[in-house]
Amino acid sequence: MANTPDYTNIDPEIIDYLGITDPEHLSAASKRALAWPEGSRSNKWFLQYETFDLKGDFAYEEGVVRRDPSAVIKVGDTYYTWYSRSVGPSQGFGGDIENDKVFPWDRCDIWYATSKDGWTWEEQGVAVARGEKGTFDDRSVFTVECLPHDGKYYLTYQTVGGPYEVRVKNQVGMAWSESPDGPWTKLDEPILSPADNGVWKGTAQDRFAVEKKGDFDSHKVHDPCLMFFNDKFYLYYKGEQMGEEITFGGRQIRHGVAIADNPLGPYVKSKYNPISNSGHEICVWHHDGGIAALVTTDGPEKNTIQWAPDGINFEIKSYIPGAPHAIGLVRENDNTDDPLKIMEWGLTHQYVSSDYQIIRRFEGARKERHKAKGVK
Ligand code: AAL
């Protein structure tokens, strides 16, 4: 039987800090506040964001989708980023699946752009293209991330092969190069695939109809982000599950990690998966010998920043007002004493319409006081 907390001798300083009127009559909310973790009084991890339009080739261009930017990697005096690029509107499902574009991220190739100042970006061209007809990535390659390591660059990205049906499984591909400008060598096989222990019900293209849901990543493995951590390669990713439900926190989306000794794999999924109970796009960085993560969009722990000393067991460090989506972090600001230094600026995307998205800039800053206008 869980021990009921003792509310009789609460430290008067805590009563004052929580502003509790009468400790003899504690509300359910005050009892939850009294259970907040160590460190909850600190704003060390609390921040807010602003977003800005970018110039050059990242300014809005009718008819072109640019979205899901990777981390920003500085090479010499030049910033590099990779992203999903496609053209034209999307038709959604239910039409001519062979010729339609079902999502803005359907029929994508991975392009890259450079900048000297992080504001004006020049599109350089295709980095990784879709595969030949019949390959596991012949329909779309998208939502890319980049890890520079030991003089090489590793791109990890989502792949779809064949008709982009509702029930199509999404996998993760990899390409590497000795230069951020390529040429890129694609691995012939995916480095990560969905769990195969879900069972669809019936043959209709309905992702909610299941005999058995299977693991959190039984339908799709998404948003791959490779980190070098503890002398190994940690591939963080988002999992989508067959038979996904909407719960008290919204969509059931969780994160996982697969680990390898060599950047080219094999990647072995952690026994501890899922390592989050919420989230959407992956946003992870090094801090204090561990891994920090921004959890957005979906699940009861959306809009939290979390930290795990072992890269696996994440605890909540702050609840934030919200965050830009699909963040691309500036890796030169990674692994600093200040856990939020990396949020000073970076990239994100924004929907101009359901068909078209643009890449924008975000700037984040710790919030230490809520001051009215004019208050110094
Ligand atoms: C994004 C990412 C993945 C999804 C889609 C494009 O938010 O989670 O990339 O597939 O949306």
Automatic annotation (TrEMBL):
<keyword id="KW-0378">Hydrolase</keyword>
<dbReference type="GO" id="GO:0005975">
    <property type="term" value="P:carbohydrate metabolic process"/>
</dbReference>
<dbReference type="GO" id="GO:0004553">
    <property type="term" value="F:hydrolase activity, hydrolyzing O-glycosyl compounds"/>
</dbReference>
<dbReference type="Pfam" id="PF04616">
    <property type="entry name" value="Glyco_hydro_43"/>
</dbReference>
<comment type="similarity">
    <text>Belongs to the glycosyl hydrolase 43 family.</text>
</comment>
<dbReference type="InterPro" id="IPR023296">
    <property type="entry name" value="Glyco_hydro_beta-prop_sf"/>
</dbReference>
<dbReference type="InterPro" id="IPR006710">
    <property type="entry name" value="Glyco_hydro_43"/>
</dbReference>
<keyword id="KW-0326">Glycosidase</keyword>
<protein>
    <submittedName>
        <fullName>Family 43 glycosylhydrolase</fullName>
    </submittedName>
</protein>
